[in-house]
Structures are given as C-alpha cells and as structure tokens.
Amino acid sequence: MTTTGNGVASGPDGRLRCSWALSAPEYLQYHDTEWGQPVISVAGLYERMTLEAFQSGLSWITILRKRENFRAAFDGFRPERVAAYGQADIERLMGDAGIVRNLAKIKAAISNARIVAELGESFVDLVWSYHDQRSRPCILSDVPSTSPASIALSRELRKRGIQFLGPTTAYAMMQAIGLLDDHLKDCFVPVPRLPRRASDTE
After folding, report:
1. Using one digit for the tens of pLDDT, what is the confidence trace for 39-76?
2. Which letter does DSSP use for residue 177 in this model?
3. Looking at 27, 35, 60, 130, which residue is catalytic?
4. What residue spans define the domains of the chain?
5. Contacts of 105 (CB under 8 A, 6+ apart)
6. 35 classed as catalytic
7. Is 52 a known active-site residue?
8. What predicted TM-score, i.e. pTM, was given to this entire model?
9. Per the CATH hierarchy, to which homologous superfamily does domain 42-177 belong?
10. Are 70 and 102 in contact (CB under 8 A)?
11. Three-state secondary structure call for residue 88
C-alpha cells in the first residue's frame, strides 16, 4: 500500500482509495461498494442507525465482522419485527456471543425500532431532509467528526425518542448512508447518484 500525502492510498488493483479502506480486508468491499452510497429504505436506515449505535465506544471493524450475526439476531433489521421484542428476546440477544452484548444498546435498539416502525416511510423522509451536499474533502484532515447537520439530525431524532445517536454517531451514520459524501476527492469511487426522492428504491 502506497499512501499519498492527502489520505488516499494505492490499493491492490492500483486504484486510489481512502487509505482507511486498506487497513483491513473487510473494509475494501465495504468502502468500494457501500460506504457513502444512498440508503433510502426504512429497514436499511434502521440497520445502519442500529449498527452505528452498537459501534459507539468500539471500532467499526468489530461491528462489520459481526454484521451478519446482527442481521440474524435482529430479524434482518425489520423494525416492525424488532418492535415486538419482549423480555425473552432481550435475554436471547444477551446470550448471543455473535453480537455485541450490551444491555443498554439492545434495549435502545428495540425502543428505536418501535419509533421507526411507527414513523414508517416518513422516517426516510425525515432523515434525508438533512442531506448535506457539500463537496468531497480534499484531504483526510478536512473530514470532521461532527457537523451542523449531524448535530441537528441527532437533536431531531432524540427529540422523537431515538437513543444512542449523539452528533458523532449521527455523523458516522450520515457518512455510511450517503447523506454526505466523505470519500476523498482523489478516491476512485464515483460520486453517488442520489435518488429523486426518498421513497424511490434503496
């Protein structure tokens, strides 16, 4: 891996990528095909929001490596199913070594699912109303950990009862779901094509 001074690196195929994409094998495909691409389904947004909440205090690679386990444990992140979870499900999840067993985060994921399920498609419209159209950063040091948009999104969602989504976590979610494009300017990944409206397809 050859890293340039602006935070991109030459990968195994010779193309320039954000250098973090080459720090672990699992990151490569995630960076190239998913990170920063628009997510506009209720289940897709609920999944990303939940995974970012579980990541708080941990490394993202830990969550990425457990992602399929999370999907199996949380019924594919279908919020209407998770919303119906009770005490038996909490005990099941706390006994699942394939996920992060944090009681507060598990309870928050269930509580958040109830809010998301109740909002339905309007949850997508709400989240995407915070779309940040700024240009790609030129160097890694230009990428912040929060932004006015992430602070506002966090405040709005927490006002509605969403838990474990502070401004930093909200910013990470915004990066992941394409609300903003934080691929570096010299990264080969094309600028994503945004949907005409949030209720198109994911």
Report:
1. 999 999 999 999 999 999 999 999 999 999 999 999 99
2. H
3. 60
4. 42-177
5. 53, 54, 56, 164
6. no
7. yes
8. 0.93
9. Hypothetical protein; domain 2 (1.10.340.30)
10. no
11. helix
